[in-house]
Amino acid sequence: PLQTTFISQSYTIKSVSRYVSTLILGEHEGGHVKQSSYSAITAARSISEQNSISLLLAGSGPSIHKAASHAASFHPSISQVLVADTDKLSHPLAEAWAELVHLVQKKGGYSHIIAPSNSFGKNVLPRAAALLDVSPITDVNDISGSQVYVRPIYAGNALCTVRYTGADPCMLTIRPTSFPVLHISSDSKWDAAPVSQVDLSTYSEDTLGKSRYLKHTSQDTERPDLGSARVVVTGGRALKSAENFRLLEKLAEKLGAAVGATRAAVDAGFVPNELQVGQTGKIVAPELYMAFGVSGAIQHLAGMRDSKVIVAVNKDADSPIFQVADYGLVADLFDVIPQLLEKLPQK
Ligand code: FAD
């Protein structure tokens, strides 16, 4: 009889569904949470619709509180916003953030921790995973339940489905382009999520000081952000100079597009590194991707092959970019771009 009772007890325990709670590592700028962090919320909802989602923001000054209060009423699936208000976290250094994640996880006991797969998430999450002694799963682009994830391998040429069997928390970086931001009708009403301060009294500073923030440089542009733009126009080595990239910039202005570049164009110094699209650059999936003088190396395709419509202009009809293009034009880009500029109406 004792054994029977034991079996039936263990059956009862197995049938209880797993409680899912997720901590999102959020980025903010100018008083707003970045779209990539909201994409992480979409990913958390794919794990479970009953997911209890906490968004963690860190930094100092009024902008973090503004971002937190926006986020608290952004979507009803956000259960709480946690604010770590300290100037030690004013800049997203991996050591400082990893220590914070460690501290928040010890208190919150989340089943999942998610960050966007961008320079912030790729920097912070593996270090935080090491402190928590778990193996992270990176670059996830699809989720089937709470433990099964799909991620690209071989520069996006194959998809690998993995089941997480490790201890909690399961830590993920997700591709923002695969998890569109959830929007909700402006008529909907719900109570804003509570905003709480993280208790930093036990925040250890031992690991700080291993890296130091020097400066942040980025292009001051009115154009949309490359990672979330609806249209991207990209130039390759064939543009030949920074001066010629101005042609692409004019086209981008007419189309309301972001400018991208291949690594060859970045390495040649035509444009800054932040415009690089590809395996070692940004991953984009706009509605329209226009590639001018881009050969279509697999490392470049890894960053743009999920674009909805791909247009390629290349002098060489055998160029691999034509294998992924929906529309291809075998032509000289220096003839095509001026004609496009002439024909397109001013935006
Ligand atoms: P090229 O390969 O030189 O191609 C230029 C193209 O322009 C050719 O197809 C040519 O026919 C065409 N052309 C020339 N003149 C004209 C003209 N007047 N009009 C029209 N067409 C013209 N690359 C990336 O882009 N992103 C990455 O993230 C990336 N990561 C990498 C990571 C690793 C580990 C490695 C090894 C490589 C990586 N690369 C990456 C580099 C990649 O392999 C290619 O070298 C690079 O993408 C080529 O850039 P490109 O197409 O501009 O130049």
Which consecutive residue ranges, at least 5 long each, have pLDDT under 50?
A: 1-16
Silhouette:
globular
Count of discrete alpha- or pi-helical segments spanning 4 or more residues: 10
| Radius of gyration using CA atoms only | 23 Å
- How widely separated are the two ends? 80 Å
Q: Structural class of the secondary elements?
A: alpha/beta
Using DSSP, what is the number of strands? 17
User: DSSP strand (E) fraction?
Assistant: 15-25%
Give the helix proportion (percent range).
25-40%
* Largest sheet entry: 7 strands, parallel
Mean pLDDT level = 91
- Distinct small-molecule ligands in the complex: flavin-adenine dinucleotide
Write a compact overview of the structure shown.
With 347 residues, the protein is of the alpha/beta class.
Question: Helices, strands, pairings?
Answer:
Blueprint: H1 2-15, E1 21-25, E2 28-29, E3 32-33, H2 35-47, E4 52-59, H3 62-72, E5 78-85, H4 94-108, E6 112-116, H5 119-132, E7 137-140, E8 142-144, E9 148-153, E10 158-163, E11 170-174, E12 195-197, E13 231-235, H6 242-255, E14 258-261, H7 263-267, E15 288-292, H8 298-301, E16 309-314, H9 321-324, E17 327-330, H10 333-343
Parallel strand pairs: 1-4, 1-6, 4-5, 5-12, 6-11, 7-11, 13-14, 13-15, 15-16, 16-17
Antiparallel strand pairs: 2-3, 8-9, 9-10
